[in-house]
Write a structure and sequence with these properties.
This protein is of the alpha+beta class. 31% of the residues lie in helices and 11% in strands. The protein contains two helices and three strands. Strand 2 (63-65) and strand 3 form a beta hairpin. The longest helix is centred in the C-terminal third of the chain and has 18 residues, at 39-56. The mean pLDDT is 76.
Length: 71
């Protein structure tokens, strides 16, 4: 299942940067978070990730949470 930003209530990006393709490498980070079982708990989890990464200036292009994919 692909869950779009608008579906989980994403904040707007601070800025956007165009990527040249193909990208030279991909970094995969495992956050070892808990699982979520419904739209509300999953949305909350993703919003917490987003807030943390916006504060620390770590960019996320794709987030995988068990069976949830956010683009």
């Amino acid at each position: 299942v692909i869950v779009r930003r608008s579906e989980w209530g994403a904040r707007p990006p601070l800025r956007t940067v165009a990527m040249n393709t193909p990208v030279p490498f991909v970094v995969i980070h495992h956050a070892a978070s808990g699982s979520c079982t419904n739209k509300s708990s999953c949305s909350s989890m993703v919003k917490n990730f987003q807030t943390h990464h916006m504060i620390t200036n770590v960019r996320i292009s794709l987030l995988l949470i068990k069976n949830i994919i956010q683009v």
